[in-house]
UniProtKB/TrEMBL annotation:
<protein>
    <recommendedName>
        <fullName>IS4 family transposase</fullName>
    </recommendedName>
</protein>
<feature type="region of interest" description="Disordered">
    <location>
        <begin position="63"/>
        <end position="83"/>
    </location>
</feature>
<feature type="compositionally biased region" description="Basic residues">
    <location>
        <begin position="65"/>
        <end position="75"/>
    </location>
</feature>
Length: 83
């Protein structure tokens, strides 16, 4: 489906749920269509793929960080032995 689109689109740039719905609709309808109508249905299927293009992802507002693992024991607040 990505090969039929104008531009360099990769599979992860298309909506998975939308593509799945289009494919299911095509599979359900193919047994009831005449053999001469199948190329027209495939052409319609590929023309609808332009509606599946996702917009680019935005940058994170807060970057990912690795949080410090909490200690299993309480921390001693008074350090008399260091004085």
């Amino acid at each position: 489906m990505c090969n039929t689109l104008n531009g360099d689109y990769l599979p992860y740039q298309l909506s998975f749920n939308g593509a799945l719905a289009h494919i299911m609709r095509l599979i359900v309808g193919l047994p009831y269509s005449s053999p001469g109508a199948i190329p027209r249905q495939l052409e319609n299927f590929y023309s609808m793929s332009e509606s599946l293009i996702l917009e680019p992802r935005r940058e994170r507002s807060f970057p990912r960080v690795v949080k410090k693992k909490p200690s299993r024991y309480p921390r001693k607040n008074n350090a008399d032995h260091l004085k």
